[in-house]
Amino acid sequence: MSTNLLGTEVSVRSMPIPPAYLEPEEDQPVPANEQYLPFTVRQASNTDDLRKVVEVRQRAYARHLPLVAETLKTPEQDDTEDGVVLLIAESKVDGSALGTVRIQTNRVNPLNLEQFVALPDGLRNKTIAEVRRLGVAHGMPGRLVRMLLLKAVYQYCAHNHVDWILVGARPPLDRMYEQLTLADVLPGKTFLPKQNNIPHRVLGLEVRAFHDRLVASNNPLLEFFFYTQHPDIQRSCLEPRSWSGDEEKMKSTFAQHSAGARG
Questions:
Q1: Helix (H) or strand (E) holding 50
Q2: Is the peptide bond before 172 cis (omega within 30 degrees of 0)?
Q3: Domain of 72?
Q4: pLDDT of 72-99, one tens digit each?
Q5: pLDDT category, 171, cuts 50, 70, 90?
Q6: What is the CATH number of the domain that holds 140?
Q7: Which of 84, 176, 80, 189 is nearest to 136 (CA)?
Q8: Beta-bridge mates of residue 99
Q9: N or C terminus of the chain with fewer C-beta within 10 Å?
Q10: Does some domain include residue 194?
Q11: Cβ(236)–Cβ(45) under 8 Å?
């Protein structure tokens, strides 16, 4: 027996094993467990959403990396690049932002990581999603918000046939990703300029292997990711986003944020 994220004991190896490349489609078996949470996860789709993303991200980084947080008072250029998806978790009570994460695939542009490191030969010609700027609001639901955002990341990658997920993680966040069975794809640590040159590990996960890796490690997160249905992850999370039609609005938003930061 093991204890899952929700504090429930589960017998992991007695569970039926679904396809490793699980996609949240209508024709697949519905998980036995269904859980509604006090927040939703959806894709940011307009300038108001972008403001929420920036605000919760900046506050989250300010708690641990204040120097980096100073650079996050305005939207980053990557936020509105085509091929980039911003997810946002929002309270059902008052609509406030509780967390955010950014997904960038290499289908349109090279990954942000590729500006600073050469990826291994084994990742050449693979579709890769880089997960960055994961941040949650301070408070009790923080861990659950973080995990539901990461489940939405996995579902997005599975639905869009992404081969690998990569993250650059600093201690102690690297331990969280290790718990999700991500492993080093580069030796040692990498200094990332956009993270104030703080040493990061570059960790990766083959999307198709995620389920099997959780099973093999008797991982208590297996039930949460594969055997619990979370209707609060909205289906908008699954679709690639293009901001190219909102260029003028984006410019205005950047200008407003810049003016606010200077003031």
A1: helix 47-64
A2: yes
A3: 37-115+125-238
A4: 999 999 999 988 999 999 999 999 999 9
A5: confident
A6: 3.40.630.30
A7: 176
A8: 89, 136
A9: C
A10: yes
A11: yes
